Amino acid sequence: MNMELNAENPFVQALAVSTTLAIFMIGVALGLMHMVSTGSTPVPFAIMLLIFAVIFIAGSVYFEGRGADYVGSLVGGAMAAFAATFSAIAFFTGLKYALEGGIQTLGWEQVISALAICMVFSMLIIRMLQHKLQSSY
User: Can you give the pTM of this predicted structure?
Assistant: First the structure.
């Protein structure tokens, strides 16, 4: 099958994006469960700070380029950095938890059900964002 054909097929695109987002959502959920139960993450604090710093700088520059003032770009960059860092740490914690047998603890049926529910929600989120972006232009 031609790869270009798949890239232009809206069904394949929607399925790939919603599945990827759903897997990320499940990873974050598993990570949050593991962090709450153990009180720790597998990611060293120095790496967390580095991730935060890189996203903070990129976010600040992005918001400044979009017309935010100095303080607004810093606040926007900090909020984006916090959300992205927290999500990334939770995802990688969930990934480690899943690879260490966390899925067997929960059971495959619950994980597959969660995947299906997250796929539906991610598709709703994607469509709402597309609609919002199209209406803003």
Answer: 0.75
Q: Which residue has the tokens 């992205």?
A: 84
Whole-angstrom Cα distance, residue 108 to residue 94? 15
Which strand (E) or helix (H) includes residue 40?
Answer: none
pLDDT of residue 7: 59
B/e letters for 40-76, b = 16+ CB within 10 Å, e = fewer, are ebbbeeeeeeebbeebbeebbeebbeeebeeeebbeb
The residue among 120, 108, 112, 94 whose CA lies nearest residue 30 is: 94
Phi/psi at 92 (nearest 5 deg)? -70, -30
Q: What torsion, rounded to 10 degrees, do the Cα atoms 44, 49, 50, 51 define?
A: 90
Q: What is the mean pLDDT of residues 105-128?
A: 86
Could you give the CA distance from residue 83 to residue 110 in angstroms, rounded to a whole number?
27
